[in-house]
Amino acid sequence: xxxxxxxxxxxxxxxxxxxxxxxxxxxxxxxxxxxxxxxxxxxxxxxxxxxxxxxxxxxxxxxxxxxxxxxxxxxxxxxxxxxxxxxxxxxxxxxxxxxxxxxxxxxxxxxxxxxxxxxxxxxxxxxxxxxxxxxxxxxxxxxxxxxxxxxxxxxxxxxxxxxxxxxxxxxxxxxxxxxxxxxxxxxxxxxxxxxxxxxxxxxxxxxxxxxxxxxxxxxxxxxxxxxxxxxxxxxxxxxxxxxxxxxxxx
Length: 250
Ligand SMILES: C[S@@+](CC[C@H](N)C(=O)[O-])C[C@H]1O[C@@H](n2cnc3c(N)ncnc32)[C@H](O)[C@@H]1O
Description:
By secondary structure, the chain is an alpha/beta fold. It has one domain: Vaccinia Virus protein VP39 (Rossmann fold, 3-Layer(aba) Sandwich), CATH 3.40.50. The protein has 9 helices and 7 strands, in the order ααααβαβαββαβααββ. Strands 3-2-1-4-5-7-6 form a 7-stranded mixed sheet. The longest helix has 13 residues. The N and C termini lie far apart (38 Å). Bound molecules: S-adenosylmethionine. The site of S-adenosylmethionine has 23 residues, from α2 and β2.
């Protein structure tokens, strides 16, 4: 990627995510100057997206929703499955990123790109799968966003999430531990860019759903060559529901 494009994105990140005004206006102010370079820069830091998409059920004739879908980069990870869906809805609050997503989705008549707040948006029909890809950490009322996403699912459908996080000080058995230094450093490092790493997201998801898949990892971020940021990939189904017939998760 050209250094000039990187410099523009880094400058925007250095100026920070303004705390003033409605959430949508703040997102637009932050992303509009970097929208055209968003994909190239984030490609090197948003790990696990392909892994999540490959684990999600996207059956022929099915309905899939990405909440906080940004530029629609994740559409590419569905490959041939995308064209066989009855509907794919990409929902986001930032017009500059949605403009990129609309260009990307131009060849797909079954893809709808929608401007809405994911804490309140509801689709006309329930979905086979709903997911957040690096969006929960940018949504102030993330609990409401998760609850609202669960309400979009048809019985047996799944919720997927990939995002940055930090572990709880005392994580549940079997979960990754992060040093005190890491738990202090990463939330501070990301906060300037409006990304709020939390130790509460993963426990909330695990409590709200029956876990289908969980992987925790670390991944490189640009211009910090010796450090790797923690992220997780999670898939869960609403509790007490049998898997959708024809889904191929387990
Ligand atoms: C880091 S980007 C991730 C974009 C995309 N999912 C990806 O993987 O490249 C976070 C996205 O969440 C969106 N977002 C944040 N809060 C939102 C809200 N309340 N409703 C809809 N979208 C929101 C932002 O506009 C942005 O596009």
